[in-house]
Amino acid sequence: MTTAVTSAAREAMAKLYRASEPDVLKPLLDRAAMDGDSRERVMGHALGLLADLRAAQSKGWVNQFLQEYRLNSSEGVALLSLAEAFLRVPDPETADLLIADKLGDADWRAHAGKSNSKLVNSATWGLVVGRVLVGEGSTGPLRRLISRAGEPFVRQAVGAAMKMMGEIFVMGRTIDEAAKRMRRPENRGFTASFDMLGEAARTHADAERYLKAYADAIDAIGRDPAAGHSISVKLSALHPRYEVARWSECVPALTEMLAGLAEQAAGKGIALTVDAEESERLEMSLDIIGAVAARPSLKGWDGFGMAVQAYGKRARPVIAWANGLDRIMNVRLVKGAYWDSEIKRTQVEGLADYPLFTRKAATDVSYLAVARDMLDAENIRPAFASHNALTVATIMEWAGNSRDFEFQRLHGMGDGLYERLVRENGYHCRVYAPVGGHRDLLAYLVRRLLENGANSSFVHQLADERLTEAEILADPVEKIALVGGRRHPSIPLPVDLFGAEGHRNSAGLDLSDVASLATTVAAVNAPLPPAGGAGGGPVDLATASADMPSPNPSREREGSEVAAAIGRAHAAFPGWSRTPVEERAACLERLADLLEENRDVLMAICVQEAFKTIPDAIGEVREAADFCRYYAREARAKLQPMELPGPTGERNTLHIEGRGVWATIAPWNFPLAIFLGQTVAALVTGNAVVAKPAPQTPRIAAAAVRLAHQAGVPEDVLVLVPGGPEVGAALTADVRIQGVAFTGSTGTARKIARALLDDDTRPIVPLIAETGGINAMIVDSTALPEQVVADVIASSFRSAGQRCSALRLLLVQADVADTVIEMLSGAMDTLTIGAPGDPATDVGPVIDRAAYDRLMGYRESVRARWVKTLGVPADGLFVPPTLIRIDAIEDLNQEWFGPVLHVATWEAGTLSETIARVNAKGYGLTMGLHSRIARAAEVAEAEAAVGNLYINRSMIGAVVGSQPFGGEGLSGTGPKAGGPRYLYRFCAERAVSVDTTSAGGNATLLSLDEGGI
Ligand SMILES: Cc1cc2nc3c(=O)[nH]c(=O)nc-3n(C[C@H](O)[C@H](O)[C@H](O)COP(=O)(O)OP(=O)(O)OC[C@H]3O[C@@H](n4cnc5c(N)ncnc54)[C@H](O)[C@@H]3O)c2cc1C
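^ thats the input. predicted complex w/ flavin-adenine dinucleotide below
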């Protein structure tokens, strides 16, 4: 019975995961609706709660804070970003820069002394002092005083202000301190659920530390079970790779760890709740929770529980699932804390729809509907976590006289909301109480303030004096019914991300969905038929390399085949260039659709021929489709004849035309995306193309060309010439070639440039070259190490380091180098190196034996400098990801195109000089900066001589139309691929000027009216 209930619930979840918002909301609206009498009573309760909340505002620090520093004010933003970074900066020099940066522009004095809260005021005064000291030049009296008293004074003032902010939200630095604080009079009647603070684990060492912290906390709370306190556990803290792709590894491991903690809690007689995290983790967490719930050792213990997020479209079946477990479950209903990041991730990954609601009122409706289900459920002990008076009042209405549930709130928030309910009305309330040091606290604090500082949030609205009570307590059911449950108009579906004017975004694949992951894994690993086989549909595509020449043709044969290919294209060019741009653009759009329709087989070829991992293979197909759609749109908009001004009696027009036959020469590392990107840009501008893929990846190119023909590009307009350097040489040496688009090494680009100039009789033709780089990332001591490490791992080891944008040289400020390198080494340990078609693989093999030998030889030659390296499978071309220390930036002078990362340090205060030293290498492709100092970002923007600068993010994954890609200096000629100026370089411009008077007078001039007089 239970299994039937839980599996039906899981099926319902799968259906709702990315279902359309109105469809999901319809039954929820019915469930959350109430009659007039109920609504009246709810309003009565809610107004009472509102009054209590307002009365408590004189004590409520968060309300004070939100009132004083609105998040949309420059002071609010400055304060949050200062709070987030300040306490982790070890060196005074950077701390001062950070203070100057954050306090420099804000008007703190306007706030000083205005608030009723002593805490807000003392924090403000700290900031005013800081501002005066850092912001008003070096001549003011205070500045002079400080130059004598010393800069530490400023730091101390700001540090004290930041700590004060922290204390509001942290219950204690240790569990004992926190438990003691719970005994204070202001917490009388409340119980606590303690939360051990910290980021999600990045390394196994982090995870072990968190596991121990939880176990110690359970011991400590268990010393006084009668106090009724409990513990909250985050699964992401217990495993550094709590990801769907690692399901088979992390789910069993986490099940064991959670079961251990649960058994310990059961033994002590205290309750344990599993926090709710990102939506893609929900299914895994249910497997873990389900397995722990079924442990015989936990039979009879009623303390096990989980949190459920109402903003998720699957909330209702999750409740049904929990109710179907064969035991009592404590369920904490929350609205959800990851709303902004979930929306962004869905857009970035191009998924079909959002897993959560896009309107705040929809979340409220869902919360109320789900709450009702929980109150009716047989096996659920409900806990309702909210600071929203209307939400709380509605639950009171539905619960009637029952007190068989609890409310919950966060420590530091919602003061005043529950005091009367607990002390006079017999309700229970638990406080979610973070425990930990201030450093760990601040990221948590910023999260909470962002969450509750949003305009739509209840706490924010409460602090907004312009809003009436009726507005604050407006019925969410009515609001949502009014808009028919439709999605928020400012949050488009990912497919429409680029707007009505922009190109259609490519479709991603939801690898967090287990079913979709399984289908994808089967598809990419299905054996490809041998090249040249016959057949139709996808198989046909996989065998498309049939028309390739044999592997070792003679030089003459190659020469003549290339000449013949160019001849065909040359003959086809005039017809194609006369084809209206609209038709050419439509071919590209059809090609994009065909790429998506044939995604499975294209991904399989990418995985099996180019050793792309599954996410990289998806990225490859998406980027190719994006190029097609983006250039189609660009061509329509930009290739139209342009009327130009001139004297009367003259008509001036600028026409943009194709130049002739282009050679496009592609690399193996983006064998579909770059191969097609270059090619379709040349095609849509009216050129014919002879396209040469890399010798390592002919099949994917053949498949792409076959699809292009299917999309309507005539066969002679796009001709494929597979082969190695000889084919390339024959191609570029032919005088009929009117332009070359090349992506590959700087050395080959140079050879092509020379070849194009070799023949004195030949026109000088354009060369678009995209080449490599010695890409650096600069990290200062304000950066968040966890974020840095995640971005470094992605930038340097994803795609086995075989991206031109990949990070080659990590430059860490000396003061934090040890911490960052230690965390990075730990994170490297969590990498899986293996077959590219395995979803768990992070790093696959390198492209071929030559690359392998080169990289392994280099790696061996610097063995003494290894900071960290990893073991790899014995069979296959696996280069172990390796971190190599160098003494100076100047010691690295070559691009090592593989999973090899170099690290060096730089001194605080030398950012400009460090950037200049990187620039001096002469390459200019990508650069990264991790810093919380806005001024540092400005310096990098102004001084980094690179085509693509990435600030506080990874350095890979440029998106067509958002981050046009390409370098300068030794890294390429430009213009940028996927950018608004790319197409022009493929074109000839023709200006036509016609004297319209020559045929008998200037009719335009003579027919002018009197100009309004
Ligand atoms: C005791 C306790 C434990 C918690 N544990 C967890 C947990 O385990 N996991 C977790 O994720 N969160 C947890 N939270 C945080 C919680 O999810 C909410 O963020 C927070 O409580 C705010 O909700 P509210 O009802 O107090 O405020 P309200 O202001 O009524 O609601 C704010 C919430 O609405 C949602 N929202 C905002 N804008 C939109 C929009 N445009 N479209 C859709 N929804 C929107 C967001 O979820 C936001 O947090 C917990 C909160 C408490 C009090």
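The mean pLDDT is 90.
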